[in-house]
């Protein structure tokens, strides 16, 4: 099993499916963003999942919650995000 699959499995245990939303039940950053710690560094779960599906966020672009689709603070679903 590759490291990606292992990572994905451990993440899955902390995600609750709610319709098309994926609600994070793990740790959140001070400002409410779902995070995990990797090697002492903060990793944003939503970005991790989005990049797993779509590839790396291109230089100069940012990942944003699409507020017209999702207002759930702890939702980490890639489908609820888009590049700006
Ligand atoms: Zn959502």
What does this structure look like?
The protein has 84 residues and is of the alpha+beta class. The protein has a domain at 26-83. 24% of the residues lie in helices and 26% in strands. It has two helices and six strands, in the order αββββαββ. The protein has a two-stranded antiparallel sheet with strand order 1-2. The chain has a two-stranded antiparallel sheet with strand order 3-4. Strands 5-6 form a two-stranded antiparallel sheet. A hairpin with a 2-residue loop joins strand 3 (35-38) and strand 4. The radius of gyration is 12 Å and the shape is globular. The mean pLDDT is 91. Bound molecules: zinc ion. Zinc ion binds next to loops.
